[in-house]
Amino acid sequence: MTDLNKKTPASPAAGSDGSGSDGSEPLLKVDNLVKHFPITKGVLKRKVGAVQAVDGLTFDVRPGETLGVVGESGCGKSTMGRLVTRLLEPTGGTVEFQGRDITHMSAGKLRPMRRDIQMIFQDPYGSLNPRHTVGGIVGTPFRLQGVKPEGGVKAEVQRLLELVGLNPEHYNRYPHEFSGGQRQRIGIARALALKPKLVVADEPVSALDVSIQAQVVNLLDDLQDELGLTYMIIAHDLSVIRHVSDRIAVMYLGKIVELADRTSLYEAPMHPYTKALMSAVPVPDPRRRGAKSDRILLKGDVPSPISPPSGCRFHTRCWKATQVCKTTEPPLLQLKTGHQVACHHPENGEDQAPGDAPLVADVITVKSAAPAEPAVAESVAEEAPEPVAAETPAGPEASEETAEPKASTEPEAAAEPATPAEPEASEEAPEPAAEADDKGASATPTGAEDKTKE
């Protein structure tokens, strides 16, 4: 794999209006994008709820850059990619491509724009028709768009196969005759057939071996330099995203929680969720493992998108959560140049809600008070040995002496009935010592050791 620092520095940060600081218009602009999948019940298909897969995404992609999207499984990354390419109909929000609103554009009007927006699918096995040859699969975009390349379709398909590292002579082979990495290359060749301006790559290397992953990632990088492509790469592998991306968006439960350039995000993450993701990245160099910060383990599972938490959706697993996090949803604000974060208490930045009551105050108190309990027990145990050790060697003799003063202090009339009670007193006398032993567990061994030494 090529050097991680090979890519040019990230493009200028986006302004509040979505355009770059250099005044260039974004190629893709997404504003408050929403996708809810309804949940129906019964014969009448009555709606009883909705899966909030994507809920209010706002971002832009500028020409020639690569925007990486990371997050846990089920956070809505793939759904967002299908919404951008209009493979799914959005529930709300807008999607603009080259200044044109394509959110609810009809299939007939959208067809000419398909050649400029292509997608590389996640599954290299299910995205290819097993009944079609490689030549037919890669040549289908030319037929659908009515494009006649110079030299013919076959010559252009063979050129594309060679471009992605496949043998042009495999034109008449079927998908089952290729390995997983080769099938993914076929999918890349099909996506690049019409020279698109935007390529959405949904987990392009997640189903491949590690050795093949490096080849495909480097191939995408080289094709971008050669053809001037604009990428939006969706992945959950932070190392892959760091290698290919200029800017990175972190998603959690259908929302973007942090958006920044690659250097800022990896060196100084501001959202607690991003910091937890970064702590999970393994360090292959043994000499650098000691310098790596401690691993942050998030408690609990990701909440259901059917009924997400109120306020900040990460507050149920966040160690910095306060009352405001539970009640108020944090907006995506630019706290640094080119660094946007949605958090009331960001890392490496100014606190947006100082002095707010911690949401996990009871848990913190219990954790801080827990170490003090053994100390109290030790102090009791240190005081307990002296009286117990003095009583233990005495044994039965002490019990008789204890009983005699009791009998002598009683009146003479009560002295006679007290005589048969002496054995009872001798039997009951050791019980306080036993109780003392139970209260000071560490005292009993100490007394036993003293008796052994005598």
From TrEMBL:
SMART domains: AAA. Residues 1-24, 374-454 are annotated as: Disordered. SUPFAM superfamilies: P-loop containing nucleoside triphosphate hydrolases (SSF52540). CDD domains: ABC_NikE_OppD_transporters. InterPro entries: AAA+_ATPase, ABC_transp_ATP-bind, ABC_transporter-like_ATP-bd, ABC_transporter-like_CS, Oligopep_ABC_C, P-loop_NTPase. PROSITE patterns: ABC_TRANSPORTER_1, ABC_TRANSPORTER_2. Gene3D superfamilies: P-loop containing nucleotide triphosphate hydrolases. Pfam families: ABC_tran, oligo_HPY. GO terms for molecular function: ATP binding; ATP hydrolysis activity. Residues 28-278 form the ABC transporter domain. Keywords: ATP-binding, Nucleotide-binding, Transport. GO terms for biological process: peptide transport; transmembrane transport. Residues 386-397, 410-423 have a biased composition (Low complexity). Belongs to the ABC transporter superfamily. PANTHER family: D,D-DIPEPTIDE TRANSPORT ATP-BINDING PROTEIN DDPF-RELATED, TRANSPORT ATP-BINDING PROTEIN. This is Dipeptide ABC transporter ATP-binding protein.
